[in-house]
Task: inverse folding
């Protein structure tokens, strides 16, 4: 089934995503050595306690020496600092990838530092939770989920194939996109939902004083879903907002226009408009469920596993 795909893998950053990758590498035996590096000694110690790798260092430069695959899993705002640290120490022919939620900014931060003799292939697994840190990761996170690559022009196809094989071994489905397109699509399907969640939970929190805790006491499942997203890591989401600024502002402008339309329809009692919109959005949910992309469904990820 699984086989060794890389002799040595370096994982830079060992939070939710890095540690989930580490757990799958170990489970499926995809590498002989896994060197783990992260900034804080405390997190590194925890990674060692969890036996996520075979070697541990707080030096990213040290970690990438002799690595055939380097996976950078840090908040997107830290990409340039990491690229600067690792660049002089990368092995010729190594594949360097990342998992960042935004792509144009990560490319702008990392590509200029990458030596010509390495393959830099930006990536983004569309899988995660609201939790963070090495304890939050788990094996199987990427199963049945998309991993999007945004390769630079002239990327070596063989290197891309090797990286695809790695993500497929984790159960992911692969897609390729232009980085700007990626950032627009993700702005609407991922970044805006998080921003809306942070906002609505913030509004409710402000109301708490008025309602004397009734917001929490009576929170129905709709509000609870928002609180899960709004519990996501503040550093990560600050960086996403700052590093996908244009696409997010564009989507927020459209969102505000549509909200004004809804507001107007409610004010003027235009039930037909409300009914038309609510019917249209209902079909979107149904098509997601039908496409087997509903994470709540027992069949979720089945098609990828069958491969
Ligand atoms: N959390 C999620 O659901 C998903 C996150 N991503 C992306 O994956 C990346 C990592 O996210 P998570 O694993 O969730 O975060 P996390 O907070 O769980 O882990 C981040 C890791 O990066 C390290 N780190 C933080 N700042 C650093 C710096 N300046 N230099 C070096 N290392 C640093 C931390 O010590 C930690 O090991 C982010 O770019 C995020 O956008 C992608 C898909 C899903
Ligand atoms: O927790 C959730 O619902 C998520 O949406 C997780 C997530 C967060 C950021 C990404 O770039 C991809 C996935």
Result:
């Amino acid at each position: 089934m699984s086989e060794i795909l890389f002799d040595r893998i370096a994982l830079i950053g060992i939070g939710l995503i890095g540690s989930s990758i580490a757990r799958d590498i170990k489970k499926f035996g995809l590498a002989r050595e896994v060197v783990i590096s992260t900034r804080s000694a405390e997190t590194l110690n925890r990674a060692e306690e969890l036996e996520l790798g075979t070697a541990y260092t707080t030096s990213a430069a040290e970690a990438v020496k002799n690595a055939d695959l380097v996976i950078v899993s840090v908040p997107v705002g830290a990409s340039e600092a990491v690229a600067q640290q690792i660049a002089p120490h990368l092995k010729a022919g190594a594949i360097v990838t990342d998992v960042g939620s935004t792509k144009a900014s990560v490319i702008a931060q990392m590509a200029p530092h990458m030596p010509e003799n390495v393959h830099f292939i930006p990536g983004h697994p569309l899988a995660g939770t609201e939790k963070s840190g090495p304890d939050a990761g788990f094996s199987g996170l990427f199963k049945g989920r998309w991993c999007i690559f945004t390769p630079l022009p002239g990327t070596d196809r063989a290197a891309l194939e090797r990286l695809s094989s790695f993500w497929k071994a984790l159960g992911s489905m692969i897609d390729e996109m232009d980085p700007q397109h990626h950032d627009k699509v993700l702005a609407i399907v991922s970044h805006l939902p998080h921003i809306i969640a942070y906002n609505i939970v913030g509004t409710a929190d402000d109301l708490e004083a008025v309602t004397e805790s009734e917001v929490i006491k009576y929170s129905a499942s709709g509000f609870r879903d928002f609180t899960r997203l709004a519990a996501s890591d503040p550093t990560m989401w600050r960086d996403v907002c700052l590093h996908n600024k244009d696409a997010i502002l564009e989507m927020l402008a459209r969102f505000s226009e549509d909200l004004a339309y809804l507001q107007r329809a409610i004010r003027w009692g235009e039930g037909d408009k409300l009914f038309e919109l609510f019917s249209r959005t209902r079909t979107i949910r149904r098509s997601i469920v039908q496409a087997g992309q509903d994470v709540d469904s027992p069949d979720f990820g089945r098609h990828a596993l069958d491969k």
Observations:
- Residues 6-177 form a domain with the Rossmann fold fold (CATH 3.40.50.720).
- The pocket of 3-(4-hydroxy-phenyl)pyruvic acid (ligand 2) is lined by residues 101, 126-130, 190 (CB under 6 Å).
